[in-house]
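User: I'm writing a tutorial on reading structure tokens. Could you give me a worked example: one chain, its sequence, then its tokens, then a sentence or two explaining what the tokens reveal?
Assistant: Sure. Here is the example chain.
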Amino acid sequence: MKRVLILRPEPAAGRTAAKAAALGMEARIHPLFAPQPVDWTPPVPEDFDALLLTSAHGVAFAGPALLHYRGLPAYAVGAATAQALAEAGFPMVVAGDSDGSAIAARIINDGHGRVLHLAGTTVAPMKTGALDIRRIAVYGMTGLPPDPALITDTVSGSILLVHSPRAAVRLAEQIGRDRREHLHIVAISAATLAACGDGWASGQAPALPRDDDMLALALRLCE
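And here are its predicted structure tokens:
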């Protein structure tokens, strides 16, 4: 059984771990960051004709003011974000299973132009085309102190799942080149893979930035 180390924040880390276990992998969770709320001033809903969230953290940390926008068509990147919006009481949620650029194209195709994007303090690059997007940070990611157990758990042959460039940089800081040659990287994107640095036993990223596709690559390493 191959060991998979999951570095993304909770609660997403737990979802990834459950899927990895269902595929027969031994999952260990070592978040490198934790989300924290950011104070924000909600603009009036009338200024927008669509709402966009690219992470379920945005739903969790926007607070009660999020409900001001329930009358807007809501768009989400990922099933978890869409589910969080639905559970928050949004009746119209369109979920995209790719990335921010793909959901932006869907918003344009649906005829919307003025979009409120509730996001984190850092956002992955996305092509927004003709959209007029107002992005407001409602949460930020705080780096957690180095965890000695991360080093202990990276036994030879372990697979590290890296879900963001920031996590890749932090991972490279914590695992020196002298420990990398027997560890495998599966990153969510080519940019994230590049940020991990070199010296790893292998490194790969899926064609689309999806958690399930990352796990599929990890499973192949187990064969």
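What the tokens reveal: The chain has eight helices and eleven strands. The radius of gyration is 18 Å.
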